[in-house]
Amino acid sequence: MNVISLTVWTLENNCFIIYTAMTVCFIAFTMFHKNRMEAHYRRVAAKKKFAPTGAGRERDYPNDEDDPDVLVPAIPEDTPHIPYESFKRSDEEVLKRSREYYELMAKRRTVRRFSTEPIPQEVLDNIVKTAGTSPSGAHTEPWTFVVVQDQETKTAIRNIVEEEEELNYSKRMSRQWVTDLKPFATKPTKPYLTDAPALILVFRQTHSWRQDGRKKMHYYSEISVAIAAGILLAAIQYCGLVALTSTPLNCNSRLRDLLSRPGNERLELLFPVGRPHSEATVPDIQRKPLEEIMVRV
Ligand SMILES: Cc1cc2nc3c(=O)[nH]c(=O)nc-3n(C[C@H](O)[C@H](O)[C@H](O)COP(=O)(O)O)c2cc1C
């Protein structure tokens, strides 16, 4: 019997065992390879998630591997929990207040022409204090509100914003963007930056530092600052003043330097605040009706 005949004879007589062994080997190899691939993808995902994503951006989540032995909460773990003081209001009262508040907020408009009439310091303090009541990721309060009333500083801010806006409108923004802005009659020149009695610049702290010198992570800092800005706008409306919501494009580093803000802060919003000019106008735009913005489930 030669080698070939022997092989054929062996395969024929032991085919069940041979096929079973091959199947087991195939399954074992597949499982082994799958686990290796999964571990590889996990490592790549973790690197992406925790890697610094460029200048001025923080990691939104902590990397426990940074310091696995010193996992101490940023605020004391034994912070007491106290009873919540609620407003005891009837359904009628709640309904009435919801209507009244809607009516008040529905009148809020972005105003682009301001009166130079000053506003009391305490009003500004209270508006900013109200914004500071905003919720924030893990109570990190990642905001700084710079309130500028000094005329020279307002002029310096205006010069920077106007310089950058010239470039934004002519080179940086898409043609479609510039076209979409036409109904609002926005221009690179911004007299409201020197007319409004106060400018509130909202800076987002990408991270901060604990008392022990360790870095304090700021989770969801972008959305936290956006909520605080919304509360600021509501407070401005409630007290009877007006604001212009603006996001000065490409002005972050120049305004940060001008206002001596640290490198962990990014300018997100600039709100001129005050009273409207007696001849101020607003575009006659409509808001989406409830049926278009709300889905009841
Ligand atoms: C994130 C954001 C950025 C904005 N940036 C500017 C801006 O740079 N300049 C401006 O004149 N208005 C700006 N606006 C105002 C919008 O144009 C305005 O809110 C919108 O037209 C709706 O009008 P209303 O605020 O009167 O309801 C901005 C609004 C938001 C929410």
Automatic annotation (TrEMBL):
Per the UniProt record, one Pfam family is Nitroreductase
> Any keyword Flavoprotein?
yes
Gene3D superfamilies named in the record: NADH Oxidase (3.40.109.10)
Q: Where are the transmembrane segments?
A: 16-33, 223-244
Any GO MF annotation of the entry = iodotyrosine deiodinase activity
Keywords assigned by UniProt, alphabetized: Flavoprotein, FMN, Membrane, Oxidoreductase, Transmembrane, Transmembrane helix
A cellular component term from Gene Ontology for this protein is: plasma membrane
Start and end residues of each Nitroreductase domain: 106-275
Q: What's this protein's family per the entry?
A: Belongs to the nitroreductase family.
UniProt name for this protein: Nitroreductase domain-containing protein
Organism of provenance: Parnassius mnemosyne
